[in-house]
Amino acid sequence: MPEQRPSPSIGALQLEKKISFAWALSAVIAAIFVAAHQSGVVLPVPFLVLLVSVGLSGGFGGLMAGVIGGVFMSLSIIYAWVVGFGPATLTGTIFNVFLGCAVAVGFGGFLGAMRDQIVDLVVELDEKRRELDDLNRQLEQRVSRQSEELRKMPRP
Questions:
Q1: Helical ranges in 62-93 per DSSP H
Q2: How many other C-beta atoms can be found within 10 angstroms of the C-beta atom of residue 34?
Q3: How large a percentage of the chain has pLDDT more than 90?
Q4: CA geometry: angle at 55 spanning 50 and 58, to 5°?
Q5: pLDDT per residue as tens, the chain (156 positions)
Q6: 38 Cβ contact list (under 8 Å, min separation 6)
Q7: Which of 86, 99, 109, 136 to pair with 19, CA 20 to 30 A apart?
Q8: What backbone phi and psi angles, to 5 degrees, belong to 92?
Q9: Where are the chain's structural domains?
Q10: Of the candidates 39, 29, 115, 109, which has an alpha carbon nearest to the alpha carbon of residue 72?
Q11: Taking CA 100 as the corner, what is the angle to CA 58 and CA 31, rounded to the nearest 5 degrees?
């Protein structure tokens, strides 16, 4: 009979879903972005790096981490617009800034929501597996009882 063990990875996923600091990646990248610009250091494709960090925040941390990561990217876009830095398609007009901020928050939120759904499905799958294990154990006990009863019956 297979031994039923709790799945530590499921508990870890649930805990991560509740308290995640994956958004800190976007915060650090945004801080590096601002500090590099203020010191005159040119970073290669900083907005793309920020967008990737937002995706990673959402993908590793869930909905809230993705949205918070998107907010940090939005703050970086607003900063770039205020100081007159960045591509015109992102920081040229207030409409471009608004659209860039919406994309950042939406992207992080979308990936985060997908991650949360996957975690929920994995947890549900684990619960169903446990139910199936219980049903299998009950079936084995029934078969064992029936077999024992059949052995005890007189043979003709």
A1: 63-83, 88-91
A2: 16
A3: 51
A4: 125
A5: 444 444 545 555 555 554 567 888 888 888 888 888 889 888 778 888 899 999 999 988 899 999 999 999 999 999 999 998 888 888 889 999 999 999 999 999 999 999 999 989 998 999 999 999 999 999 999 999 999 888 888 877
A6: none
A7: 99
A8: -75, -45
A9: 10-116
A10: 29
A11: 65
Inter-residue contact 43 to 58 (CB < 8 Å): no
CA-closest candidate to residue 23, choices 74, 83, 97, 78: 74
Q: Could you identify the residue written with the tokens 């876009």?
A: 77
